[in-house]
Fold Insulin-induced gene protein.
Amino acid sequence: MLLEIYEDMADDDTQPSIRKKCGPYISSITSRSLNLVIRGIVLFLIGVFLALVLNLLQIQRNVTLFPPDVITSIFSSAWWVPLCCGTASAVIGLLYPCMDRHLGEPHKFKREWSSVMRCVAVFVGINHASAKVDFANNIQLSLTLAALSIGLWWTFDRSRSGFGLGVGIAFLATLVTQLLVYNGVYQYTSPDFLYVRSWLPCIFFAGGITMGNIGRQLAMYECKVIAEKSHQD
């Protein structure tokens, strides 16, 4: 009789522990999904803001020209440009940390927000140079921006995955831009590389590295929060 009572008490003790294990597991999945959505929204908003500011520089310098009927936003930019850049920024920012985990190479070089902000400042400076600095010819400008873009990667990234994704992003973004220009959506003044400017891939490369660093930093912050919660539990 005493043995049966002891077994019943043991069963009662194990059932709550099972429920406790299930609870945090489900909540961790929910929190990770929510954090992924939040990171995507933050990256989208950052991409929209940078697109408005940087495209304004290009338009003021008459580097890019939009038809009058599509100039609708407050920063004299076509409405779809910030949305496309924001979406691309979200995808890039989420892709970089996923690629790091897939390759088993966690990025640990200069993982602090001050470094990320300096990376953003250098990227804005590279874009500003493409619009404001006058060079003797486009070849000199393209080589200078290429050196600056690679220097940005070496200073703030130095990962093989970051360089590879940056090159892939530059290729795809340049191809999409060429298709848009070819179909008359907008145009570049003085194109010298298949309807676009030859330095454009350098801008896309630097932009990919920048958004990748922001995405990595946000992902690292998420991991810290999850680790603290699990430690408290």
Q: What stands out?
A: The longest helix spans residues 2-60.
